[in-house]
Every structure is written in C-alpha cells, then in structure tokens.
Design brief:
- The protein is mainly alpha-helical.
- 74% of the residues lie in helices and 9% in strands.
- A two-stranded antiparallel ribbon has the order 1-2.
- Helix 1 (16-33) runs antiparallel to helix 2.
- The N and C termini lie far apart (42 Å).
Length: 131
C-alpha cells in the first residue's frame, strides 16, 4: 500500500506498511535499549521508503521525539533516571540541536550520509566490543 507525499513541489511514493511496521519495531527497540532511534529510522526512511535526506532528517527527529518522550516518562517511573546527568547533558543537546541542522543544510547530502555511515560503523564496532 503506497501513499504519495509532496514536499517542496516534489512527489514521493512511500510504502505505508513498511514505514509503520519499521517505525514500530524501531520505537520498541529504542525504548528498550535507550537510543533515540535515529540510527535505524534514517536508513529506513532513505533506503526503505526512498525519501531524500532533507526530508528524512526533520521527519525522523519528529517521530523519534514522541517515542523518546514516552520512553523517558516510563523509565522515570521505573526509577531509571539521573537528574544530574540530565541537567549536564540538556544544554549541550539543545545547542547541538540548533547548530547541527544549519551545518547539514550547508553540506552536500552525500557528505551527510557518509558522516552518518561512519558514525553508525563506530557505534556498531563499539557495541560488538571490537573497539
């Protein structure tokens, strides 16, 4: 089942079922393991759904925001929340969230993808205990 999405005068055909199932599974995994979901949501939207990077980044952040909010509330209820750590990281996250889109807008989409790939590879190697 496909849906046509229009963004800045361009039309994209999106597989709704793949997007919903993939988004749900990513939300479950990110809530369980504590990552934002972006490392998986961005590839789902670019490769699986065929959307361009300039649409994917903002859209995935909005989708992940609600999952992160709910996951944070549940972890807070379970006592898995460190207020001091949050207060230390919050200003940096706000600043990075403001600066990063401005940098990405000025850089080639290919460079943004390559930086994302390097970051994901480093994350994977770290999780596997290689480095």
């Amino acid at each position: 089942m496909y849906m046509t999405v229009e963004f800045w005068g361009q039309e994209f055909k999106v597989n709704i079922i793949l997007g919903c199932i993939g988004g749900f599974l990513i939300a479950v995994a990110s809530s369980m393991f504590g990552f934002g979901g972006g490392p998986f949501m961005v590839p789902l939207m670019t490769v699986g759904l065929g959307l361009p990077m300039y649409v994917v980044v903002g859209s995935s952040l909005l989708a992940i925001f609600f999952n992160t909010l709910m996951g944070t509330m549940r972890h807070y209820q379970f006592g898995n929340f460190d207020l001091l750590f949050f207060l230390i990281m919050f200003p940096a996250a706000i600043l990075a969230g403001f600066i990063a889109p401005q940098i990405a807008k000025r850089v080639s989409p290919l460079i943004v993808k390559r930086v994302a790939v390097v970051g994901l590879l480093l994350l994977a190697l770290n999780l596997l205990g290689v480095y």
